[in-house]
Write a structure and sequence with these properties.
441 residues, mainly beta, OB fold (Dihydrolipoamide Acetyltransferase, E2P), 4 domains, five-stranded mixed barrel, five-stranded mixed β-barrel, 5 helices, 26 strands, globular
């Protein structure tokens, strides 16, 4: 996309697509009148006369972040810092994520601007006024604010939205494109691992995050690896500038930022122990938010426990609750699991529960994979909100042997993945559970 087309697209987003012909005619007229003027330069002039850049000239006025376009030479903004990185590279640069009541943008600072940020005491949650910044359009079409040598930085006036305003709840960012800012509860950690990236061994650690029973995995890369630990389990985390990987996992990047706000401690969670699972020490637990695996050698089926402290541990491709502090409880109403409708399933959900009617079931077969031969079966699942294709692998195929077309079933501990054609699919693995739809309701 050329600079002209990119600017035209942004101008039309502000004044309306119906004015395209009017603007382009005016651009061509100005170029014809002054051959030294490029079409891009003429478009800047026309856009300015339309008021698109009103208040962007250097001075005391500021511009809303949503109205920024690439190519502006001197712009003033007021924003709350929702993400900031440590200085990186040499010479050092600092990545910021800034928000106001109109939107969020990425920013980058270097040289004297970094020293001015430090002098102002810039941190996550602080509001800043920036004068004399400039903008660039990134390859993905988003705008980036640059704080160069001449940028002035000071504390902004009160009135910007509070920090929590900029972070969506985890379920609201599934399948979002580009950078996402979300809040979630830290549930558990997997072991750190090393990944080779362009010949360099890079540290990565996966953690499970959740919000009211909806779970996803977040991969911490490089400098983020040691920012969170076991002592943070159960706390709410604000993650700015994360991205979804093609495999459906949230990942941090060099521009991401992690913040743990000071919030009240979470209330104990009630878990009804339903039955034993085939894996040693594994139990099926029901909470008000859904169905979980629970690992314990001392807890028994039929018990209702109030868990004050716990963490999740990775088991195969799924996760299990490890109760650390708990006591037997009594309750007038036992927890009932929350089951997702098919229409609410999103790529990236892990250990999800869904129920529906089985149709178009295929016979079990053997497939060759990179890890050898394995059993495979597939079928469609439907409910009132839609339908979705389901694939069962390995030992999960045996659980489906007695399931017939037209039956209602519940699938627990499944992953929602994306197939090569960009469509959602349900992955049923060794740790999944297939049960009659009303068995745990």
């Amino acid at each position: 996309m050329s600079d002209y087309e990119a600017l035209l697209r942004r101008v039309l987003s502000l004044v309306g697509e119906d004015r395209r012909e009017e603007i382009e005619v005016e651009v061509e007229r100005r170029v014809a009148e002054d051959p030294r003027l490029t079409r891009l330069g003429a478009l800047y002039i026309v856009a300015g006369e339309l008021g698109v850049f009103e208040g962007i000239k250097q001075g005391s006025s500021t511009v809303a972040l949503s109205k920024l376009v690439g190519g502006l030479g001197s712009v003033n903004i007021e924003a709350r810092v929702i993400g900031v990185s440590r200085p990186r590279r040499e010479p050092p640069i600092v990545y910021l994520r800034l928000g106001d009541d109109s939107g969020v943008v990425d920013a980058i600072a270097w040289g004297d601007a970094i020293r001015r940020l430090e002098a102002t005491g810039v941190a996550i949650g602080k509001s800043i006024l920036v004068k004399g910044a400039y903008t660039r359009e990134r390859p993905d079409g988003t705008v980036e604010v640059h704080l160069g040598e001449h940028a002035e930085i000071s504390e902004a006036r009160p009135g910007l939205p509070p920090l929590e305003h900029f972070f969506a709840e985890l379920p609201d960012v599934f399948e979002a494109r580009g950078a996402v800012d979300f809040k979630a509860v830290i549930l558990g950690f997997a072991e750190a691992r090393s990944v080779s990236v362009k010949g360099e061994d890079v540290g990565v650690r996966d953690l499970l995050v959740g919000w009211r029973g909806i779970k996803a995995e977040l991969s911490l890369w490089r400098e983020h690896l040691g920012l969170l630990g076991e002592s943070d389990i159960g706390k709410t985390v604000y993650v700015a500038g994360a991205k979804w990987s093609p495999g459906g996992t949230l990942s941090t990047t060099s521009r991401s930022s992690i913040h743990i706000p000071t919030l009240p401690a979470q209330e104990p969670i009630l878990i009804k122990i339903d039955r034993r699972l085939p894996q040693q020490g594994m139990l099926l637990g029901i909470t008000q938010y859904g169905v979980d695996r629970v690992y314990s050698e001392s807890i028994r089926p039929g018990q209702l426990i109030s868990v004050k402290k716990m963490h999740y541990r990775r088991v195969g491709k799924g996760w299990a609750i490890i109760p650390l502090e708990y006591e037997l409880a009594e309750a007038e109403a036992e927890p009932r699991p929350r089951i997702q409708s098919i229409g609410d399933l999103r790529v990236g959900m892990v250990d999800a529960s869904v129920k529906g009617e089985v149709f178009s079931k295929s016979p079990a077969t053997r497939l060759k994979t990179k890890r050898g031969e394995t059993d495979f079966s597939s079928f469609w699942l439907r409910d009132a909100s839609g339908s979705i294709f389901c694939k069962a692998w390995g030992g999960a195929v045996k659980m489906l042997e007695e399931v017939r077309e037209g039956e209602l079933v519940a699938l627990h501990f499944v992953r929602i993945v994306r197939n090569p054609w960009g469509e959602r699919e349900v992955y049923i693995g060794e740790e999944s559970l297939v049960a009659p739809s009303g068995e745990l309701a």
